[in-house]
Amino acid sequence: MIEAAPSWLEWALQQPRRSHVTHAEGTRLHYVSWNAGDTHKPGLLFAHGFLGHSHWWDFIAPFFTERFRVFALDFSGMGDSGHRVEYHPDCFVRDLAEVLENAGIAPGIVVGHSFGGSRLMQACAAFPELISHAIVLDSYFKLPGDTLPLGERRPAPRSYPHAATGISRFRLIPEQDCEPWLLDHLARSSLRQTESGWTWRFDPALRKLRSAEGDESMLNRITVPVTYIHAELSAVVSKDRAQRIVAAIPHARGPITMPQARHHMMLDQPLALVGVLRALLA
């Protein structure tokens, strides 16, 4: 039996979120807002990791609505966004640009975790006019000569006869400790029902996605303010790699290390992450 969730989590999950739809290169893009009507506030967009979705921010984003107009997107092929016929290297960067413009929050602050943070850095180089500050959370950037991290490899998706079976099979990649009530929330929000049963909410074709060879010159061209946050116990990004990424970006800040945090820092250090982000955005 899962232990009772803390009051802060119950509060965060009770905050109403609204769905929005736009299109990027003909593909349906889904994103959510917690307070879209607060048009007098600056915009803040959260971008999830590979094969994730906007629900990864359900227990983080509501803590920022007092000062910001807060959104989170589903990258194409993930969550409730449509599937692409082909996933070219720049399509996820264009997803970010489209949501920023459609939500009316450009230039806005963007927080990107892992895969989302890597695409955020690319977006800073491609669409600097749309981003006022990029906060990158433990994101891998493949520099020339590097090998892919183990976290890039994904098991084949499958259908389950019951939602409960799928929930029990939910795993983080890379695996790490996580509070059971957060893992349960993510497992439930990661499933969708189909004619053949319950399956994960991402396009199976994404498993064949290859990370583009790193282009350090792209990092050199970034003029947008970038802050890089590194998880001390990350299985994806070493401290040395975080330092190399920051060194390649002119005027970047960091890496700021979150003590005892693992790669999915919002799952093992959720309130600490909120505190770090609030300090950076103060």
UniProtKB/TrEMBL annotation:
One of its GO terms (biological process) is acylglycerol catabolic process. Residues 44-274 form the AB hydrolase-1 domain. It comes from the Bacteria. One of its GO terms (molecular function) is monoacylglycerol lipase activity. One of its GO terms (cellular component) is membrane. Keywords: Hydrolase. This is Alpha/beta fold hydrolase. It comes from Paraburkholderia elongata.
